[in-house]
Amino acid sequence: xFIGRERELGVLDKLYRSEKFEFAVIYGRRRVxxxxxxxxxxxxxxxxxxxxxxxxAVQNLDNLSRSILEVLAGNESTAVFPTFQAALESVFRQSExxxxxxxxxxxxxxxxxxxxxxxxxxxxxxxxxxxxxxxLILCGSSMxxxxxxxxxxxxxxxxxxxxxxxxxxxxxxxxCKLFTGFSDEDKAIVYGIVGGTPQxxxxxxxxxxxxxxxxxxxxxPASMLFExxxxxxxxxxxxxxxxxxxxxxxxNGASRMSEISTKVGAETSVCSVYIKNLISxxxxxxxxxxxxxxxxxxxxxxxDNMFRFWYRFIxxxxxIISRGGxxxxxxxxxxxxxxYMGKVFEEICRQYLWQRMLNGQVPIEFNELGRWWGTDARxxxxxxxxxxxxxxxxxxxxxxxxxxxxKADIKVLDTLILRSRMFNYSNVYLYLxxxxxxxxxxxxxxxxxxNASLVTYKDVLDYESTGS
Length: 468
Prior knowledge:
- The protein is an alpha/beta fold.
- 47% of the residues lie in helices and 16% in strands.
- The chain folds into three domains: 6-166, Rossmann fold; 173-341, Arc Repressor Mutant, subunit A (Orthogonal Bundle); 362-466, 3-Layer(aba) Sandwich (Trna Endonuclease, Chain: A, domain 1), CATH 3.40.1350.10.
- It has helices at residues 6-17, 34-42, 57-72, 84-94, 107-113, 117-128, 143-151, 172-177, 184-194, 198-201, 210-216, 228-236, 240-251, 257-264, 268-280, 305-313, 318-322, 326-333, 337-358, 410-420, 440-449, 457-466; strands spanning 22-27, 47-51, 100-105, 134-140, 163-166, 284-287, 299-302, 370-376, 381-390, 395-402, 427-434, 452-456.
- The strands form three sheets. The protein has a five-stranded parallel β-sheet with strand order 2-3-4-1-5, with helices on both faces.
- Helix 13 (240-251) packs across helix 16 (305-313).
- The longest helix has 22 residues, at 337-358.
């Protein structure tokens, strides 16, 4: 069953219906579902589908020839085109006669093997663009290659694409669609430990408990997820050791560049380059206090939930896990799960607010949501706000998120009110999110002040499932 990606399928369908030459670039991290999206799109259409392999040009040309002839000649021919140009020209000429989709998946592998492939594609596009009915799709998992050698200004194919789609991990709402057996709370925890990457979500079994799933995957040396972060880094970067050290430092509480460089034993100038690469891979976030574009108070955190969970809990327990101490390792992890889920719940609540805003269901149109931290001028103490968003110069939204088993009480709301007063906005809207609901006193205070919305985790889930 295919889940989600309605927007992306809509974009591709619109391009397909144009009946003229179209060129779409699809890229995104490994395991994020790019190939599944393309297969869903082409399942009822005539398409030549070729996947590049990490091999030499001869092997890629052989595979390309087979893919083309299987569709155009209707047989599994062993014939091979003499050159990539001859192979590509045969597809482009056929597309003058009929609507035809031509997919090159894992394009970076093929392009690295044949250095002239990009310029040959450019030649074919320029030659046939006005007469072709082809929908060309280039897809790749190497983010840096696709951005530098396909999308960048100096790339041979620059200016020829008609669309590009960066495929992101599933939102919490889409992730929930994969599971019907998990309890409401377990849906959030599963999203918290594997994130929105479809391939990781599919490793979870909703007939089992969260504990059983963690034991079967992260605490199982035979599981795909047990070595996934290491394997992914080895595929994406040249020096995985230092990248591993940086992510481990982030997972264990280091957030500022100086702290990270101290923990890994490398100069800040070196760390900054590596962190920049991790950001481009979608594995690390750089945050500044909301409203500040450049700040010495910038902090870094792990962006991907699976990486964050793995680096937080697996390396420190690796010896026990390798010796079969699954139960012992889980007992070490379980007491920290609720605290770990705090940041995950904040992200779920931000996604909820974004969706409501896009549906016109919040009283403020913000351009972004983020966190704020700094010094409260009134108390001279450090403080932070989980969610902040600004509309016009006089309007702002402030939010607080509580993932605890206790109901949020009036003190939590009072604190949010005080923190919102650190800023000079005349129209303020408060959102208090709580996993377990609110005390009577908190609900009474919210009703009295009139500008506070109290949202339970169940409210979030209900909205995600119905959109209203």
